[in-house]
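User: Here's a protein and a ligand (zinc ion). What would the complex look like?
Assistant: Let me lay out the input and then the predicted complex.
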Amino acid sequence: MSVTAALLRELHRCHRQLADLRERHERGPKQIRAHETNVKRLEDELAKVKAEALDARKAVDGKQLTLRAKEDKIANLNGRLSGCSTNREYQALLEQIAADKVAMSVLEDEILDALGKVDEFKARVAQAEQHLAKGKEEAEKVRTAVEQQRSLIEADIARVDAELKQLEVDLPADFRQNYDRVVRAKGDDALAEVEGDCCGGCYQQMTPNMLSQLKLAVAVACKSCGRLLYFRE
Ligand SMILES: [Zn+2]
């Protein structure tokens, strides 16, 4: 079974190009999916911060309601002052009013703090919205690029595949069977260049007999890895 090194070299080039093209063809959708996952994560983050912002707002509203209730209560107590029949009752009301005013003052401080938190969350929501917009923009860019590349890669695959089939037509039948088997098992690793006197795939040393056979264009497979060997140009 006689096969020239030039033919094997060309076959190997086609197999390697096809493997590379197919890898690129598969990588595109993976890149798109990775960006989609990222967008989903940023959406979740935004939703979480928005919920926290809403909680902060509700906390302020609740405290403001309590504050107004306290104001009403103090107004009511003040109104009752003139109707007091005893000094003791009057003093008790004054003490109650003073205590409520202290509570109001504490509540006002708490409201100021809570308003600060509301502002913080507003800033965080704006930031999360920015991140999401950027993530979406990047995802769209990648999708467009991958879609543009896809048809080019598919055309290249078809071209190289046709080239490979054309080369394979010329293979002697006895070699072809062995070649098909190795290609099925190893893909683009089915062939290897000889490096020095070693298989360029696994670096196992070749025997003198293998080298002399190969020089006579007799097909030789590496005894260690099974790759079909050929001399470099
Ligand atoms: Zn080998």
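Summary: Residues 171-233 form one domain.
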